[in-house]
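If your schedule permits, I should be very grateful for your opinion on a structural question. I have a record of one protein: its chain in single-letter code and its fold written as discrete structure tokens. Kindly check, if you would, that the fold set down in the tokens agrees with what the sequence suggests. I remain grateful for any guidance, and I place the record below:

***
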Amino acid sequence: RGHGMKRKICVVTGGRMDYGHLKKVLEEIKNEQEFELYVVPCCMHLTSNESMERIRNDGYEITYTVDCLLESNSADSIAKSVGIACISFSDCYRLIKPDLVVVMGDRFELLAAAQTALFMKIPIAHISGGDTTEGAYDEAIRNSITKMSHIHFVTNSDAYKRIRQLGENPDFIYNVGSPTIDYLKSIQWCGYQHR
């Protein structure tokens, strides 16, 4: 970017399952003078007006939405949803022209967000790569996103080691802890403010 121009940071959120974890990240990006925040809700967010209102009520402008969910939850429907998401994310990125796409976790819509950014030569920052889960295909999706990403924000030292084992450059792996804990520490609990 030219002198004085803000870097465009596009944060993709798929639903309540990652939005709460991303709240502190969104806040920090929004408050950073060098960055311009673009919030892109997709998938489960679009099934609930309450979810979209929560984002707006938290003070974030919704830049673009990616509607990719099909009626069925079958394997072929999920595969088709990924394809639909890729088409929509390509339109989104072409419009925004982000300098960085930020995704968190291991859901199929985030895989679509990451692979589209990869093909469009947009750097990707992945939060919570290297974590582990039992069953399903979350692990494969998470590791795929890790391999497509350029910057890795991991939550613990074991996750750091796993990403190193995948061959990622240690200069771009940051053990930052859990953004969820940062968020929890910043809110009031029954009138008690954590310090």
About this structure: Residues 75-96 form the longest helix (22 residues).
